[in-house]
Structures are given as structure tokens and as C-alpha cells.
Amino acid sequence: MLDQMGKFEEEVRQMKEVAHEAQAMDLVYNFKKRVHELEAEVANRRLTESRIFDSLASQTREFELTKIELEESKVEISLLHEEIESLVASSEQNNWRCDGSCSGKIALEKELGCLRFELGLAKANLAMIQERERFASSKAKALHDEMHLVRNELKFATCAEEKSQKALDDLALALKEIAAEAYDAKEKLSASQLELEQVKDEAGQLKHMVRNAEARYQKLLNEAKKETELHRETADRLRLELDESRLAENETRYITCIKKAEEEKKLAQDEAATLAESLKAAERITRAAKREVYKLKQAINEVDAANTAAGLARDENIQLKDSKAKKEESIRLLTQENERLGINEVAAQENVKKLKRLLSLSALKTEDKEQEEEHNEDPHIKKTSSSVNLQQEQEHLEAKIQDENLEKAKTLKDTIFEINESPKSELHIPKQVSHHRRASSFAFSDDRGTLKTKDLSMSLSKSSSSLNTKDKEQEEERYEELQVTKKLKLQQEQEDLKVKIQDNDPEKAETLRRSIIESPKPEADPHTPTKVPHHRISSSSSSSDDGGSLKTEDSVGDRSHIRRKRTLFRKVGDLIRRKIFHKTIH
């Protein structure tokens, strides 16, 4: 064993020495390689630095040259300015002295032009020189920055070179130490080999002594094993007896505990069963009560919705009848107005004929007067003035008649457009129409006015008749459709309510039927339009202002009524959906 241990230790030492030597060689190689690389980098940096320095020197020279040129150009510009000022002063003096010398002025102007041209060239040269100066300064700055960077890199390279030199020195010292340690290790190895031989001899002697001791101890061990086996057997027997006694005691205790637990369990189960039964009964009662309450609420809501829908349907039917009566009355009034227009046209034609006769008579009278008073000068002036006055009156009458015809045509067109735009609403006649129709009793000037009024009356009568027929047909169709749909909806709702109430409770069904029969009609909402009697429609249609106000009120009332109707239909739809949902659940 000791020999093997010694050999193993020697091998480990040899391996460590070899590893140390290999690591040292690798480090030396790496350091040398790094030193060569750093030297090459330093050489490259020096070359770049020298190049940058040369370029910087050349650029500084250029910069100095540009500066010199700039100063020279500035001097030239100042001289040119002075010359210009002197020439201007001299020209002013010459102008004061001799105003008539044209040749001197031309020469001075030429000189001034030349000087200005030279000044412009000098300015251009100055601008070019300034640009060169800026470019040179920017190049100098860039080169200065590059120099600064190169110097920094050089510093870093020198630092790295110093570090690598120090590392090489440290490596050489380490190699020397390793060589000294290897020499010491070889000497120790030779000494250890001698000691090993001595130890081997001693180990042989010790092995012989150990064999003898082993034989003696083997005998003692056999005897001790026999005694321990006897002790183990006795201990096992005693353990078994102890375990049996403990098991018996535990069994008796467990049996008593189990009996007590079973009794307690039975009592708890009985109590839980009674509590569960009572809870179930209470839940059934509460569920039944909730169902009854919910059904009653739903039935009440449905009955209210049905009542409101029925009331709305009644109100709507009444309103539709009233609107129908109003429209018939308005159509009747339009026909009367058409008849009046025809009568007024006939009267206007007669008035026109009378006016023509009067005009012809007045013309004859003027001719007679002219023939009688040809020889007299003063009456001739009176005659001309009277004829001028008659002509003016005639023109005034013609203009008035034309204006009245135009106004009448405009009002008739407005009434036609109103009829076309609102076929479903009431047809109200404005006040201006009646006024113009009253004014139409005055005479017309030409046959063209009569023809226009005839055409307008014919078109108005045709449009009113066609609109009357269309409005009546559309209103009747819509009225019938609304009545049919409302009747169907009310019948469905009443049947559903009856079925539901009969399914739940027959007594409740009877009470709800009585309440539906005895329930009063729903009061009219303040927003719904009020019912207008038939005898008031004629009076309101006679005046145009009252007709306009009624139209606005009816339109507002119709809108509010439509909104209310939509909300009620939505509520009824929601109730029907809930009812279907609850039916599917149950």
C-alpha cells in the first residue's frame, strides 16, 4: 500500500512539473507574439504621425499664404475705396465749377465704372480667399484632431509596450524560479527513492508481524461472534414479547375509541339530516314565494303594457280620423278657391275690355280736340300736356296690372309646391293668396295676363285633384294596415296573458280579467296631440296664420306620439321575450 502511495505521489509531482513547464513555454510564446504585434503597431503609428505632421505643415503654410493674400486684398479694397471717394469728391467739385462740361463728366463716369468693376473683382477675390481660409482652417482643425488622436494612441502603445516588457521580465524570473524548483525537486526525488527502499524493507517486516497478529485476532473474533449471536437471540425474543403486549393494549384502546366515534357520528348524521330537511323545506317555500311574486309582477306589467297599447291604438285611430277630416276640408277649400279664381278671371277680362273701350274713347276725344285747336297755340300746349298725362296714367295702370299678375302667379306656384311637398299633412292656404285673389278684381292690361292666370288655375286644379286622390288612397291603406297590426298584437298579448295566468292560478286569472274589464281608459299624455272637433277645422282653415300654427303643433304632436308609441312597442317586445325565456327555463 505504501509503495503504491509513493508511486502515485511521484507521478503526480512529475505531471505537475511537466504542466508548469508547458504553461511557462506557452506564456513565453504568447508574450513574444504580443510584443511583435505591439512593435508593428508602434511603427505604423509613427509613420501615420509623420504623414499627418507633414500634411499639417503644408496646410499651415497654405493657411499663412491665404492670410497674406487676404491682407493684400483688404489693402487693395481700402485703396480702391479711397480712390472712389476722391473721384467722387473731385467730380462734385467739378460739377460745382463747370456744369456744362459734358466730356469731363463722361470721363469721370467711365473712371468710376472701371473703379467699381475693379472693386467688384476685389470683393469676389476677397470672398474666394475667405472661403479658402475657412476651408484651410477646417482642414487644420481636422488634422489637429487627428494628431491628438494619434498621440493618444502612441501613448497607449508605449504603455502597452512597457507592460509587455515588464511581463517578459516577470516571465524570465518565473522561469528561473521554476528551473531552481525543478533542480530541488530532482534532489528530493533521489533522497525519497533511498528512503523508499528503506521503507520497503521495514514494510516487509511489518507485514510478517501483521500476519501473526491477524491469526490471533481471528480466533478472538470468532469467540466474540458466538457470544454476540446469543445476546442477539435473547434480545429478539424480548422485543417480540414487548411488541405483542403493546399491540394487545393498543387494540383494546382502538376498539373503545372506534365505538365512541361511531356513536358520535350517528348523532351528528341524525342532526345533519334533520337540518338538511328543514333547509330544503325553507328553500322550497322561498322559491315558491319568489316564483309567485315574479309571476304576479310580470302579469301586472303585461296587463299595464296591454292597456297602454290599447289606449294608444284608440288615440291613434281617432287622430287618423281627424286628420282625414282635416284633409277633406282643405281639399274642399282648394276647390272653392279654384272656382273663385275662375270668377275673378272672368271679371278681370271684362275690366280689361272696359279699359280698352275707355282708352279708345279717350284717344278719339284727344284727336277731336287736336283738330279743333290746331290754329290756337296756347290750347295746343294744353292738349299735349293732357295727352301726356293720359299716356302716363295708362302706363301706370299697365305696370300695376303686370305687378299684380306676377304676384298672383308667384303665390299660386307657392301653393302648388306646398301641396306637392306635404301630401300627407294638412293643406293650408296662405293669407297672401286670398289677398291677391281679392285684388284680382282690378283690370288686366293685356291678353297675356289672362292666359297666364288661366294656365295657372288649370294646373292648380289638376294637381289638387290628383293629390287628393293619391292622399286619400295612401291614407286609407295605411290606416287599415295599422288597425290590422294593432288588433293582431293586442289579441296575441291577451291570449298569452290568459294562458300564463291559467297555467299559474285560475283564481288570479279571474281577478286579472275583472281588472282588465273594469280598468279605465289611459289618460292622454300632455305630449300627445289634442283631438280637434270637426266644426273647428273649417274655422281654422279659413285664416292662414291659424293654419300655420296648427300645422306646427300637429307636427310636434305627431313626433312625440310616434316616439311614445315606439317606446311602448319596445316595452311590449321586451316583456314577450322575457315571458318566452322563462317558459323555456321552466
UniProtKB/TrEMBL annotation:
Residues 456-468, 538-549 have a biased composition (Low complexity). It comes from the Eukaryota. The keyword Coiled coil applies. Residues 366-392, 455-568 are annotated as: Disordered. Keywords: Coiled coil. Residues 469-528, 551-560 have a biased composition (Basic and acidic residues). Residues 182-285 form a coiled coil. This is Uncharacterized protein. It comes from Solanum bulbocastanum. The lineage of its organism: Eukaryota, Viridiplantae, Streptophyta, Embryophyta, Tracheophyta.
